Backbone:
């Protein structure tokens, strides 16, 4: 390196760093939202380097259709801008947003313009003042706060000739605001190959992954109108449940789907003028099928309209200089079901009143309405923040006789970040019985969508659990970290996940280095390895040390076995060769060889299958060979994705005769 010139050395280091970054994730560029390659040839759309101003209106009405004028309405009006400083990247900016709790403002906008002019002539400015006063009266009380939240941040998105594959919001963007912006961009999405050719395809937008049909409605020399129909019943990734229990979504075959509770329809009319959206009108209806008759019943109707209001010039280069180039986070257009936490005085008061009501109808004389009161209390408490919920718990003993007990029993089922923090405080400060603390940790292990704040909460619990034999604390907390990793790509790069991993790994290595055969220390090391196995993430340095321990003859066998199990959720291909070597080591403990074989079979490829076959042909330990052969036989008959590889191994008749006679199998 000393013979290189300084400038050449710098370029070499930059080249190495760039090569490493590409190797880590070749399909993502940290400076680009969406896929790196942009193909702008023969495009359907032609958005230039200009600001496209749109008026956006969405009206939602929920009513019992056919039962008179009895409805709940909500109207959103906003002005927004969409612009494309890069060929395949756009930005959405909301400049003004107003929220109304009636649809009168929508009807006023659609009334005849000549009548408005006539009214102005008669009453001059007085009519305008009355109109502004009426608009203010109809405005939702949260409209001002709503406007602040919606206009705070830009939204960056990928735009590949109509396909919006990814949005890249800023880190501080809240889920509910992002969902509204996803809804706006979903209307902009068009995945047709050409405007003049009808298309049937599958799209991913705020409704989920749905089947969509495009049909040409009308055309002229400068514009086309396209009808877009979405089959809501075919949508996947659409629904979510708010429950303390973890569930796994299952996609049924189309001919085996259950009877839908909602009868939904969705279609849009897209008007494109000179390869730019001129107007988008959408209608979506949801009818509750039970207790409905034809079109009557509980009905929600949503109508939206995007209308081009003008075009302005701007400097794309200046905009890019003033805004961060690196992508902070990525997401699809799919709706984010993370609940918002914004407590109000009414909710605090309602939670206190429901707690008093639970005391009245609950223990010791439990009445039938207790379950309804309990459910309402859980729903109300979900919106309380940490400070409010802590105060409610502190005052619960004086609120009513059983108030504290009712609140403690409710905390695991509230399912909010605030409730996890309150439970952490009670556990760490040992303000409850050990049995209740264990029950809480068991319940908390089923958290479905933990956030980073929740990880910080459980990091505190893991620190409290140091050198404790209570497995509930470590195993429950690590199960929550695994749930976080299921919903966050590259979670091993998350700082809070790294802190938790480092905490567990450091404690294990400290205990192992000082281990002299104590039962208590050995049990704690097993718990730590199980916890790391729960998460499915280990550091490279710790993986090397653990692999050395697995091969260390002086280490206890149970520690070595659980060391192998600690890799059960780690990237299989990364450590496959190590476990194949263990399996092929005939001098190794038989149980260790079997566990290593099972680990390698999580991700078999052509080469590893050949290695396993070669080891079987020269197997010296009948116990290991019989287990492997019986496992392959069962695997070949199952629906496992690796059954094809297993069937290929079973073609050897000599191996079949050799291992099938072991009486233990």
Residues:
């Amino acid at each position: 390196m000393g013979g290189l010139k300084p400038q050449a050395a710098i370029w070499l280091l930059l080249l190495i760093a760039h090569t490493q970054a590409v190797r880590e994730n070749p399909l993502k560029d940290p400076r680009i939202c969406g896929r790196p390659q942009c193909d702008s040839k023969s495009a359907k759309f032609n958005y230039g380097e200009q600001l496209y101003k749109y008026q956006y209106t969405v009206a939602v009405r929920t009513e019992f259709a056919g039962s008179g004028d009895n409805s709940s309405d909500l109207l959103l009006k906003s002005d927004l801008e969409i612009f494309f400083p890069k060929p395949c990247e756009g930005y959405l900016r909301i400049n003004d947003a107003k929220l109304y709790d009636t649809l009168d403002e929508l009807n006023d906008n659609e009334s005849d313009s000549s009548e408005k002019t006539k009214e102005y002539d008669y009453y001059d400015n007085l009519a305008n003042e009355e109109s502004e006063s009426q608009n203010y009266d109809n405005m939702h009380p949260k409209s001002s706060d709503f406007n602040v939240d919606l206009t705070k941040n830009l939204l960056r998105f990928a735009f590949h000739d109509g396909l919006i594959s990814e949005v890249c919001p800023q880190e501080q963007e809240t889920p509910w605001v992002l969902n509204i912006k996803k809804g706006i961009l979903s209307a902009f999405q068009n995945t047709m190959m050409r405007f003049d050719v009808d298309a049937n395809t599958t799209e991913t937008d705020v409704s989920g992954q749905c089947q969509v049909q495009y049909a040409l409605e009308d055309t002229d020399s400068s514009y086309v109108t396209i009808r877009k129909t979405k089959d809501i019943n075919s949508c996947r990734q659409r629904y979510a449940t708010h429950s303390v229990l973890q569930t796994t979504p299952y996609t049924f075959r189309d001919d085996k789907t259950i009877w839908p509770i909602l009868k939904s329809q969705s279609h849009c009319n897209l008007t494109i003028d000179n390869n730019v959206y001129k107007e988008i009108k959408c209608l979506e209806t949801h009818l509750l099928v039970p207790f409905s008759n034809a079109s009557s019943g509980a009905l929600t109707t949503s109508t939206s309209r995007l209308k081009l209001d003008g075009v302005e010039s701007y400097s794309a280069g200046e905009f890019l200089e003033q805004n961060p180039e690196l992508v902070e986070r990525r997401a699809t257009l799919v709706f984010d079901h993370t609940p918002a936490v914004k407590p109000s005085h009414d909710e605090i008061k309602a939670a206190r009143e429901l707690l008093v009501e639970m005391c009245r109808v609950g223990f010791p004389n439990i009445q039938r309405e207790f379950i309804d009161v309990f459910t309402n209390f859980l729903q109300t408490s979900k919106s309380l923040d940490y400070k409010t919920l802590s105060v409610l718990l502190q005052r619960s003993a004086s609120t009513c006789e059983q108030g504290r007990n009712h609140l403690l029993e409710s905390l695991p089922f509230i399912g909010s970040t605030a409730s996890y923090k309150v439970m952490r405080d009670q556990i760490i400060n040992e303000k409850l019985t050990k049995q209740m603390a264990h029950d809480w940790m068991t319940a908390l292990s089923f958290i479905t969508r933990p956030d980073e704040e929740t990880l910080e909460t459980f990091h505190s619990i893991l620190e409290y659990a140091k050198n404790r034999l209570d497995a509930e604390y470590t195993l429950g907390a690590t199960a929550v970290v695994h749930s976080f990793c299921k919903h966050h790509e590259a979670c091993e790069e998350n700082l809070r996940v790294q802190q938790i991993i480092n905490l567990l790994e450091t404690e294990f290595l400290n205990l192992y280095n000082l281990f002299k055969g104590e039962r208590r220390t050995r049990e704690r090391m097993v718990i730590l390895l199980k916890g790391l196995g729960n998460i499915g993430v280990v550091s490279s340095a710790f993986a090397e040390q653990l692999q050395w321990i697995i091969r260390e003859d002086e280490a206890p066998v149970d520690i070595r076995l659980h060391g192998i199990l600690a890799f059960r959720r780690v990237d299989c291909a990364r450590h496959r060769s190590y476990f194949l070597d263990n399996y092929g080591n005939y001098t190794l403990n038989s149980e260790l060889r079997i566990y290593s074989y099972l680990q390698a079979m999580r991700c078999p490829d052509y080469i590893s299958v050949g290695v396993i076959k070669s080891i079987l042909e020269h197997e010296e330990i009948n116990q290991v060979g019989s287990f492997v052969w019986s496992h392959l036989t069962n695997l070949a008959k199952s629906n496992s994705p690796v059954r094809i590889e297993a069937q290929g191994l079973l073609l050897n008749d000599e191996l079949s005769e050799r291992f099938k006679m072991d009486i233990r199998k």
Q: What stands out?
A: The radius of gyration is 31 Å.
